[in-house]
Amino acid sequence: MNTWFHSWRAAIRIARRDAWRSKGRSFLVLAMIALPILGVSAFDLTLRSSELTAEQKTERSIGAADARFSDARVSGVPIYQDPEGSMSTPVQDYENKPWPDGPTDVRKVIPAGSTVLTDSSGTAKLTTAHGLLQTEVRELRAADPVARGIMRLQEGSFPERSDEVAATTHFLETSGLTVGSTLSARGFDRTYRITGSYELPSDLKTDQVNALPGAFLAPYAKAVEKAGIQAPGLSTTYLVRKPGGFTWNAVQQINTKGVTVLSRAVALDPPADSEVPLYQKDGWGNYETSVAADAAALAAVGTVVGLAMLEICLLAGPAFAVGARRSRRQLGLVGANGGARSHIRAIVLSGGLVIGVAAALVGTVLALILTFALRPVLEDVMGQRFGGFTIRPLELLGIAALAVLTGLLAAIVPAVTASRQTVLASLTGRRGVRRSSRVLPLVGLGALLLGGAIALYGSVITDQFVIVAGGSAIAELGVVAMTPALVGLFGRTGRWLPLSPRLALRDAVRNRGRTAPAVAAVLAAVAGTVAVSTYAASRDAQGLAEYEARLPYGAVAALVTEEGGRDAAAVREAVQRTFPVDVRADVSRIAVGRPGCEPWGGGKGCGRFEVVIPKANECPLWATTPDGSDPSEKFTKEQRRDLNANDWRCQASAGNGVYVEGGLLVADAPILTILGIKDPGAAKALADGKVVNFLKTQVEKKTGTVALRLITDTDAADRAAEQHKPIPGAIKNLPAYQVPGSPLSYGVQAILSPAAAKAAGLTTVPMGAYFSTDHLPDSEQRQRLDGEIAKLGSTVDLTLEEGYVSKNSLVLLALTVFAGLVTIGAAGIATGLAQADAEADLKTLAAVGAPPRVRRTLSGFQCGVVAAMGVVLGSAAGVLPAIGLRLTEEREQIRFWEQSVAEGWAGSETPPYVPVVIPWETLAALLVAVPLGAALLAALVTRSRGALARRAAH
Question: Strand, helix or coil at 154?
Answer without folding.
Answer: strand
